[in-house]
Amino acid sequence: HVQLVESGGGSVQDGGSLKLSCVASVDISSTCRMGWYRQAPGKEREIVSSISNVGKTTTRGYVDPARGRFTISQDKATNTLYLQMNSLKSEDTAMYFCAAGRREGTRCEWAFWGQGTQVTVS
Fold this sequence. Notes:
It is a single chain. Strands 2, 4, 5, 6, 9, 10 and 11 form a 7-stranded mixed beta sheet that branches. Strands 1-3-8-7 form a 4-stranded antiparallel beta sheet, with no helix packed on it. Strand 9 and strand 10 form a beta hairpin. Helix content is 0%, strand content 57%. The protein has strands at residues 4-7, 10-12, 18-24, 34-39, 46-54, 57-62, 70-75, 80-85, 94-104, 107-113, 117-121.
């Protein structure tokens, strides 16, 4: 079982920045993928960004609203996942969740979730 603990959320003004952190209870290199989701009030949870390590290759992915403004990164020494968010907009307001994948056969399924950290942009 993987435990994930997020931090770094808060309230910022439009155009501001925040850096979210997620500490994992396991070696993040052992997961098939890690990422950030968000859920705004009244909306479904949606993927924001993901990162995966295959051998020496690291692959990062972003949804269109995040591309160019958000950066996902990892520190394998401390098993920490980050999400640097710049140029924040009111539509970025949501609860942000860290997620880790688990290998199931040939697939990598999102299996573990943190408790979330609130980001409010006004």
